[in-house]
Amino acid sequence: AQSVTQLDSHVSVSEGTPVLLRCNYSSSYSPSLFWYVQHPNKGLQLLLKYTSAATLVKGINGFEAEFKKSETSFHLTKPSAHMSDAAEYFCVVSGSRGNTPLVFGKGTRLSVIA
Amino acid sequence: GAGVSQSPSNKVTEKGKDVELRCDPISGHTALYWYRQSLGQGLEFLIYFQGNSAPDKSGLPSDRFSAERTGGSVSTLTIQRTQQEDSAVYLCASSLGWGARTYNEQFFGPGTRLTVL
Predict the structure, then answer these.
(1) I want to staple A22 with a disulfide (CB 3.0 to 4.6 A). Which of A7, B12, B44, B108 is the partner?
(2) DSSP letter, residue B56
(3) pLDDT in tens, B66-106
(4) Nearest by Cα to B72 from B29, B34, B102
(5) Helix (H) / strand (E) containing A42
(6) Distance in angstroms (rounded) separating the CA atoms of residues B29 and A16
(7) How many H helices and E strands in chain B?
């Protein structure tokens, strides 16, 4: 079975400071990993994905994540937070190929303080 | 060039009534998924359709839940005899099927917020 654990339910940062949202995964085979963002009253949007190519993945809006197999981690980072980054972020795992259902973490709510 | 659409956007019903939720996937996407987002449980997979294959129903929480996908396109999720614990946002997603260059990327609709009184 596959699972993801988001280590923080809520992260608060000041505008202009770095963002780190932590995620650990468990998978019996090579996984595909994703980060999705959900702004209030909006749909889920894909930020970035890892599908066994480069381990450092760049996404939209300046976010990136690094796949570390030895640590089973896929942490999301951004060098400088913006007010518009305030949202709920989900770390997600699925099978390595094909179209399989996604398994979501519980989510991390990011607050950005002016 | 529309994305995934869902209707209605909001549904309020009384306990014991049946409800139908509709999903229109992105044209050409052969895979369609239903998920549920609730306060206590987070985001959970419900059911998955891939082309003409039998659907994967492993996430359905009870036999009151069922889903159909007609003509490989539109899907309807039906909840019979609704209970208060069914209150949640029901999300639909679609993706390209096997063999496509971009696989596994699922595009989500805006969801249907279901409230059972």
Answers:
(1) A7
(2) B
(3) 999 988 799 999 999 999 999 999 999 998 875 555 556 78
(4) B29
(5) none
(6) 39
(7) 0, 10
